[in-house]
Amino acid sequence: xxxxxxxxxxxxxxxxxxxxxxxxxxxxxxxxxxxxxxxxxxxxxxxxxxxxxxxxxxxxxxxxxxxxxxxxxxxxxxxxxxxxxxxxxxxxxxxxxxxxxxxxxxxxxxxxxxxxxxxxxxxxxxxxxxxxxxxxxxxxxxxxxxxxxxxxxxxxxxxxxxxxxxxxxxxxxxxxxxxxxxxxxxxxxxxxxxxxxxxxxxxxxxxxxxxxxxxxxxxxxxxxxxxxxxxxxxxxxxxxxxxxxxxxxxxxxxxxxxxxxxxxxxxxxxxxxxxxxxxxxxxxxxxx
Length: 288
Known about the structure:
- By secondary structure, this protein is α/β, with parallel strands linked by helices.
- The protein folds into two domains: 4-210, Spore Coat Polysaccharide Biosynthesis Protein SpsA, Chain A (Alpha-Beta Complex), CATH 3.90.550; 221-287.
- Helix content is 40%, strand content 23%.
- The protein is built from eight helices and twelve strands.
- The strands form two sheets. Strands 1, 2, 3, 4, 5, 6, 7, 11 and 12 form a nine-stranded mixed beta sheet that branches.
- Helix 7 packs antiparallel against helix 8 (271-282).
- The longest helix has 23 residues, at 245-267.
């Protein structure tokens, strides 16, 4: 029988983390790793109290905890958890799930059923139910950095890091590229796996509920900066030849500039423009 450990990163979100944990009770997990990524003593106390109350009920899995000294970002936070688990308590599969996401009945069994029947499938993701629409697979355009809901020329599919079942065979000193603080690590991972012959898939029979932007606010500086930074980093990460890199940077210079203006108008704020400019300046996009 396959062993599975879920990994949940908490960032000032103990209430959401407990709701996520509750949704996992009947999924057939062996264990859950909770990572406190807040770097804040008071937030950790609140999380510990919430977990203590949660543990008063009868739960079918073991809970492990890691407390990071600061907010390491999503990639490094998950990688730290995976390194600890691989050293101390390895599992055949790891379920990465955002703390603001909740598994629906039978989600994990459906993902496992699919993975156990497939060869060379490294990642499986459920359908994401936002309450407004259901999201399956995204497509990323390498040249422009634009996202699409279907295949067009120059795109490749990727699975959202909101909820992923990961085969431990692909874990080598962690999973994600830690150059990504938040956003984009899932795109880079799917691209990297594609290049070495692994497959990724979404499973229509499995559903996760996710409200989105749980640790950030759209239109805020933090969100806008890291979203722009993601696309800039991907310009170098997705280049298959050195000569491609300037073209990928130039494509993003155009689309990020246009995007920032549109969002500045939408939110009636200069923050999207300022954040995008700072991200471009930090990575020297204009001279790349």
